[in-house]
Amino acid sequence: MRKSIAILDSDVHQRTHVSVMLQATYGVHGYGAWSMALPAMKAEHPDLILIGHQVGECSGVSAIRDIKRDRQLNNIPVVYIADRQDTRLRDQLLLLGVKAVLVKPLDPRAVMAVATDLLTSDVEKSWQELPPHQRKVLEDTLSAFNNMARGLANGQPPEIGPINEACSSLVDAMAQHELAPLLQKIRNHDNYTFVHSMRFAAFIGLFARAIGLPKPMQIQVACGGLLHDMGMMIVPPYVMYKQSALTPEEWKQVRNHVATGHRLLQAMGQVSKGVEIIVTQHHERLDGSGYPNGLKGDQLNELARMAGIIDVFCALTDRRPHKNPMSAESAFETMATTMGGQIDLALLPRFREILLESGSKDEPEVVWE
Ligand SMILES: [Fe+2]
Ligand SMILES: [Fe+2]
Question: What's the whole-model pTM score?
Answer without folding.
Answer: 0.73
